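Sequence in, structure out. Go.
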Amino acid sequence: MERKNVWETYSDKQIKELEKLCAGYRDFLDRGKTERECIDVIVNMLEENGYTELQKAILTGKKLKPGDKVYAVWMNKSVAIYRLGKKPLEEGLNILGAHIDSPRMDVKQNPLYEEGGFAYLDTHYYGGVKKYQWVTLPLALHGVMVKKDGTTVEISIGEEEDDPVFFISDLLVHLAGEQLEKKASKVIEGEALDLIIGSRPLVLAGDEKDEDKKEKKEAKEAVKAGVLDILKKTYDVEEEDFISAELEIVPAGKAREAGLDRSMILAYGQDDRVCAYTSLMAMLDTGKTDRTVCCILVDKEEIGSVGATGMQSRFFENSLAELLALTGEYSELTLRRALARSCMLSSDVSAGFDPTYASSFEKKNAAFLGNGMVFNKFTGARGKSGSNDANAEYMAHIRNIFEKKGICFQTAELGKVDVGGGGTIAYILALYGMNVIDSGVAVLNMHAPWEAVSKADVYETYRGYKAFVEGADLT
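Output:
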């Protein structure tokens, strides 16, 4: 089945809507390079759109009614957003679920050291990466350092024009004969991904009277001491504060339009913030509905959806239980029925067909940039291992909704059967018995420092998510 390039279907009005949506999306990417930053941006957007925090409603005992809009944040890394519909929650919700974490380098807890005249931060890569892609790039440092007294210091260095940037070095090609004989997975080892953050030793002025600084210089390497001096002056943090820090190393620079025709977006973190943003915007732009609409944006998907902020935690289930209590519907049975009767789109990206590496794809079942929203009936690896496999009835239901709304979509698998594979949060929600299917945007360079998507696919996915939350109902 051939799918038409969706650019050919748009009116001038739709092109304007597309460009507006994508401009907002690029801004979202620039302001949310970590999961914490994403949550800050999202909460501000929710508050501007009349949403209130669920915890406030719990504390005041507010009775929630159809049309009310609430959200619940967990550990500043995940959020569940609800807009109550006319029907009882027991009849199920229409859910969009995406993740806001992306592959990166994390700074270790005892990271700062000096070697050969350079000051380094020791790192541990997060998620599936090709390690060799992360060297010799301008990199930025984002995150928080929490001091013993509980004070949180926010760090963001490398994004402004006058900010310094950081980098990971690589061996010059003139001396790389032995290195180039290695497998790609071994060309750059994980322990070699250490960030260079300085090379200037601490120098005391001739009239320097600061005895503490003199002792610091004598006790530590001079370049490392210089870095610590800057951190103290700028952020009032000590070396010990790295123990209670969460610092992430990401590519420095803004999301950009790509191609002479400006048809694409090149940026860091589009897996899976492209689906997070389109899911959020679809929800914000949806009016009153029969069924309650929910958007879940979570952390830790890139490492298995584990931990307190991953989809495997009870955070979502607990927030829904609180919602039921505030509508006067709560019972354990009602909660189970609400979950089982829900419809969900697991909003995650798919591998875009790359003609340069065509041998890794099965072309009939590949996702193409510019061909609209992508559905993956199943993901997993090889024999569908680790996959949610959506049923035919649910796929037919989605097709019917999209046809009525004129949404362009395509279906795909994640490459050839025996080449590889991947997973999403879909199987976790499916454990409740609800209908779930993977859907999202096709991406080139997935998991690389800079990923590419088609603006048309961003717009079509937003339209698809909106049509879904307004129309899905299998009860």
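Check: The longest strand covers residues 104-115. The mean pLDDT is 93.
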